Amino acid sequence: MNTKKLLLLIVLGAVCKGEIVQNETPTETQNPQRDAATAEFNAISAEIQNKVRASFYEATAFPESNAARQLPDIVDSLSRRLSNLPGPPIVLKIVEADKHRLLAYLSLAEARIYGALADSGRAPHNEDFKSKRTQLARAALENLRVANKWLAEAQSPADPEFSSELASKITKSRILPHIHALEATAYSILWVLEGKKSDRSAARASWSQIADVGFLSEYDQPASEVEKTLDIKGGKQKAGGMNAVSWVGIGLLVLGLIAAVFVTNANTFQQWAVRVIIAIGAAMTATVIPGLLNINIPEYIAAGGALAVIVLIYLFNPPRHE
């Protein structure tokens, strides 16, 4: 399998809806070292998706939860594994760029967890979270600088492994808008901690470069530090407005209301079904509403975001069983 075909198959770490998408990779090439490094990179990317993204929002919403206590160690382990991967020419330049993007992502995830813990007012007195967050934000910016360098080289026609099809795939992966979003987050964390106008200006400049409206409409809610720094609420809603999930939610709300109005003498199951439909519809619609809702009923349930909306509506008027 030639190098250009390999490149086309592994534009790794594609960004879609703020998530890391795993792409098909070849199992046999003429470069065993590259194969091994690529396989390890894919494995780490999958772990970031499954272990970090899956518990990150729980950790920030509930900074005293097990997820919040365990995630920094998970992030440190994954960061070390990424850092130990070989660089070009053993791996492709686009892989090296994406490696540094992921390192920045992990640093900022850890910084935001410490920020949530500090904001909760329950941080241990011997923990200097401000210093940790500052170091992590600066480390993220350095990794993003390196990511931009390798990304530019991977897209340069002067690169021996370049092809126009590869450049197109890199563009479609939305890696560059995500790098700008991470830059804005890092500079925002520094501005919140140190109050330097230069950091606020840099955050605004990075955020303004995310010209891809589709990316902004699908990307995760901006970090709270970005909202504070740029004085925005729900940046993706301003850029992209309603999305497919919210429209489905509205449809479920309408369906539930129609059923509630026209179904007479509903039995217990029908009442339960209508309430579930309305609760799910409200949660899907709430994904475009700025802010974060947390519900914590001790020894019963803890929920955040859209799940909290379901809990709130369902428990507000729960069905009575006969």
Structure in words:
The chain is 67% helix and 4% strand. The protein has 14 helices and four strands. α7 (175-194) runs antiparallel to α8, α7 crosses α10 and α13 packs antiparallel against α14 (306-316). The longest helix has 30 residues, at 32-61. Residues 1-28 and 236-241 have low confidence and may be disordered.
What does this entry show, briefly?
Helix 2 runs antiparallel to helix 3, helix 4 runs antiparallel to helix 5 and helix 7 packs antiparallel against helix 8 (197-208).
Keywords:
322 residues; two-stranded antiparallel sheet; globular; 4 strands; 14 helices; mainly alpha
Give the total of beta strands: 4
Question: How far apart lie the N and C ends?
Answer: 66 Å
Q: Give the overall silhouette.
A: globular
| Category from helices, strands and their pairing | mainly alpha
Number of helices: 14
Oligomeric status: single chain
Largest sheet: 2 strands, antiparallel
- Spatial strand order of the main sheet: 1-2
Average pLDDT across residues?
Answer: 77
Order of helix and strand elements from N to C terminus: HEEHHHHHHHHHHHHEEH
Question: Fraction of residues in helices?
Answer: 55-70%
CA-atom Rg in angstroms: 22 Å
| Uncertain spans | 1-28, 236-241
Please indicate the percent range of residues in DSSP E strands (runs of 2 or more). Answer: under 5%
Task: Chart the SSEs and their pairings.
Elements (H helix, E strand, L loop, with lengths): L2 H7 L4 E3 L2 E3 L10 H30 L4 H18 L9 H27 L9 H26 L9 H10 L1 H20 L2 H12 L4 H6 L5 H7 L4 H6 L3 H19 L5 H18 L8 E4 L3 E4 L1 H11 L6
Antiparallel strand pairs: 1-2, 3-4
